Amino acid sequence: MKVILEIEYHASEWTIIQLFKIIKDLGVTAEIFKMERRTDETSAQQAPPNEFFSISFIKRIVGLFTNMPDDFSEIRSRSQEVAENRQIAMYLCRKYTRKSLREIGMEFGNKTPATIMHACKTIQNLTHTDKSFRTKLAMIEKSLTSHVR
């Protein structure tokens, strides 16, 4: 069962972790795009913990960080910039979601599982050999995971 949730809660009643444990205990696969935490004077948007990141959320963060258009992951270009950013998004989807290689590939323009595995291996190799790339990836991951806290 796939459920898209929009949750509004009062800060003193529940913590985000408690809410996600409840959702997880229900056995529901949740892709949460927006979560608002209400306080007395303000409301702040919170992203879900990494095990609940959606592929579209990860693609959006990578696109924003790299100044790519919204549909960069489906562009058929093989230019280094587009391909590298697409591979980063595939790698992060594999790392931060529970989706299968096939499901990830479908979200990236019907890419095969082998393409997703190749992207992950390429990103891992680049992080071991290229310091500037490692820094770039770390900044993207920090941007992605900073929404959790």
| Helical residues, percent | 40-55%
CATH level-two architecture of the largest domain: Orthogonal Bundle
CATH H-level homologous superfamily name of the largest domain: DnaA protein, C-terminal DNA-binding domain
CATH topology of the largest domain: Chromosomal Replication Initiator Protein Dnaa, Chain: A
Largest sheet: number of strands, sense, barrel closure = 3 strands, mixed
User: Which blocks of ≥5 consecutive residues have pLDDT under 50?
Assistant: 29-50
Mean pLDDT: 75
Class inferred from helices and paired strands = alpha+beta
Our measurement of the CA-to-CA distance between the termini, rounded to an integer number of angstroms, reads 27 Å
Give the helix tally. Answer: 6
Please report the first level of CATH classification, the CATH class of the largest domain.
Mainly Alpha
Task: Report the count of strand segments.
Answer: 3
Strands ordered across the widest β-sheet: 1-2-3
Q: What general outline do the C-alpha atoms trace?
A: globular
> Would you list the SSEs in sequence order as H and E?
EHEEHHHHH
Number of domains: 2
Key features of this structure:
Chromosomal Replication Initiator Protein Dnaa, Chain: A; three-stranded mixed sheet
Structure write-up:
The chain is an alpha+beta fold and 149 residues long. It folds into two domains: 2-50, no CATH class; 53-145, DnaA protein, C-terminal DNA-binding domain (Chromosomal Replication Initiator Protein Dnaa, Chain: A). Helix content is 52%, strand content 15%. The protein is built from six helices and three strands; from the N terminus they run E-H-E-E-H-H-H-H-H. It has helices at residues 16-25, 55-66, 80-96, 101-107, 113-129, 131-145, and strands at 2-10, 29-38, 43-46. It has a three-stranded mixed β-sheet, with no helix packed on it. Strand 2 and strand 3 (43-46) form a beta hairpin. Helix 2 runs antiparallel to helix 3 and helix 3 packs across helix 5 (113-129). It is globular and about 40 Å long.
